[in-house]
Specification:
- By secondary structure, this protein is mostly helical.
- The protein is elongated and about 60 Å long.
């Protein structure tokens, strides 16, 4: 967990969650609804993977709200936030002439999964699983740190096109079937700063 951007992101998540609960109950003023919209857009802009979680969260109103008309209003609002965030993102990208980052940046979870599974497979003598990981990483160079994915992501290879990305995700799923517990552990360690109030991994120095 980064002490810089992730701290701000966590603040936006908390504020958006508090306002959302009141919005579900139709207890927000127009000004507060605007604040919720702005906070949600900022939350989505700060982390790409927040968008995927938010899209899945669109199902929540359908489950929790008995008033279907109110559920539709909430869903429309959530979709509006997604559209606004993508519009702002595109506008900033164009205005600042920003270039897309390496493709591995969006795969923190499967990258950490593979790094952890490689260590376990190496200890168990599971050469087949090691070969699967080696398709995308030179593990003589890549380093696995359980709370930081950067050292694995910078070494990823063979995902420069759609076919490579699909193959990478299929490999991740295959490894998950072989090592479900290890895969879940890798995710929990990666996100420890979000669920463990005693976590201090953001202050660790690597290198």
């Amino acid at each position: 967990i980064s002490i810089t951007k992730d701290t701000l992101f966590s603040g936006f998540v908390l504020l958006a969650l508090i306002l959302s609960l009141k919005y579900f109950e139709n207890k927000l003023s127009k000004l507060q609804i605007c604040l919720l919209c702005i906070t949600t857009v900022l939350m989505l802009l700060y982390r790409n993977n927040a968008l995927y979680a938010f899209v899945l969260a669109i199902l929540i109103p359908l489950i929790l709200l008995k008033n279907k008309e109110r559920a539709k209003q909430v869903i429309v609002f959530m979709i509006l936030c997604v559209v606004l965030s993508k519009s702002v993102d595109s506008g900033l990208t164009h205005a600042l002439s920003a270039k897309p980052g390496p493709p591995g940046e969006m795969f923190s979870v499967p990258v950490q999964q593979m790094g952890r599974i490689y260590q376990v497979a190496n200890a168990l003598g599971d050469e087949d699983s090691k070969k699967l990981v080696a398709q995308y990483f030179d593990m003589t160079q890549a380093q696995y740190f359980q709370q930081c994915s950067d050292f694995m992501k910078r070494m990823i290879k063979n995902i420069d096109d759609t076919e490579g990305v699909v193959g990478f995700l299929e490999t991740s799923f295959e490894l998950f079937k072989r090592y479900p517990t290890i895969s879940i552990e890798s995710f929990l360690y990666l996100t420890q700063g979000y669920w463990d109030v005693n976590d201090t991994s953001h202050a660790d120095i690597y290198g």
